[in-house]
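can u pls check wat happens w/ 4'-phosphopantetheine
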Amino acid sequence: MNIAIYPGSFDPVTNGHLDVIKRSSKIFDKVIVAVARNPNKTPTFSIDERVDFLERVVKSMPNVEVDHFEGLLVDYAREKKCSVIIKGLRAISDFEYEFQMALMNRKLDPSIETLFMMTSYKYSFLSSSMMKEIGKLGGCIKELIPEEILYDVQAKLRNE
Ligand code: PNS
């Protein structure tokens, strides 16, 4: 079975992430969307909230699974018997950091490949952090995140 892991913070999942999930689920037999628990970061949404949001959003996609992990991504990939990591690329600005991570992951485990998927043009400007800033300041985030999570995300951002 051809399995791919799509890792990220997903704090929270945006329409840009969803676009990558949908497109990669057409290429691979199974896609594991893996939410990273990073002890050095303070996310806006807890790991449980981020996983729950993703589960709601991928409900109609039978070959997409949501999970979370802590520690090295390559260790997690090995544990899942998966040799492909998918990363979304937005603009040139993403490239340097993603390139560095892909090469470092290859050094850590040469059997695991990173595949980059260009984001759709309409989401090339979108990030979770920019969406959260807009939401906190009372702007409209309706077209930026999946409708299944809009109410909950909006409520939390407005209360902050
Ligand atoms: O959505 P993000 O914050 O850009 O995702 C980054 C993520 C979670 C994919 C990256 O930080 C990661 O892989 N973390 C796991 C720890 C790890 O393996 N670090 C070494 C990467 S070279």
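The first strand starts at residue 3 and ends at 8.
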